[in-house]
Amino acid sequence: MTGDTARPRTADPELACPIAPVVDIVFSRWTTPILWALNEYGRQRFVELERRLTTITAKVLTQRLRQLERDGLVVRTYHPEVPPRVEYEISELGRSLAPLFATLADWSTANLGKVDQARLDYDAQARAGSRRS
Amino acid sequence: MTGDTARPRTADPELACPIAPVVDIVFSRWTTPILWALNEYGRQRFVELERRLTTITAKVLTQRLRQLERDGLVVRTYHPEVPPRVEYEISELGRSLAPLFATLADWSTANLGKVDQARLDYDAQARAGSRRS
DNA sequence: GCCGTTACTTTCCTCTAGGTACCTACTATA
DNA sequence: TATAGTAGGTACCTAGAGGAAAGTAACGGC
Known about the structure:
The structure is a homodimer. By secondary structure, chain A is mainly alpha-helical.
């Protein structure tokens, strides 16, 4: 129970970087796929999300959803029914990330190829032995 | 030597999320502070970066810089002088991330307070015992 | 009376990112 | 002679994130 909702806290390495806190909140592991799924497909139940993000485990999904709920990016609705039913949806605050994600998607389509090419070049150079015998 | 330049590869959990590859490249640990420092203060030597990102270790800094170099976001210049001198600067591709970082900074100033408030509310509710028991 | 379902929780285990510490080559300087 | 300084490389170790699997409550159905 201790520290369940506590953020891992990556210390203060980001002192030099004003965007570090946001990165910590928005781009920690699994958060982008979850937010994307909630934003794209609307309100969903736990199992729907679990099935959509095929490789996530229930434990981690719970952790991330709690974190996102605590940060106000996701709204959780619990229905105390016979088989419990819980629904998750993106909050207004979470939806305000949309333009950011759009910018990211734009950069992706425009430059991801360049990154791949850079990697090919780098690996070719490395294999050619230009760096260290 | 095996897998030094190889990306950790977070498997394929991000199948549902088109921006996942970019997140992997741009927002993996330490990359944003490094890119920010290079973009803000221009070309720098290894030790300058090390001192600026106060808590990073030399080993990790080397790893991240290699990774960024391989991805074409950072340019490394080696001067084979008496005491070795290496300079790092942001590449054109890296500089193309500037608007993205700007969007991020904007969202930060606008909404970081709301996240903090949401956390306070959530923690207060949790302490009030409304959830379980 | 047992199974199935949901949304977890808990326990145990593994794996690896990252930290510590020490090593390199080369020279200037004291 | 010894020490400092640069830009790492390398070996060892630990903490912690994340995975697997089982447990839980509460009820409906067979």
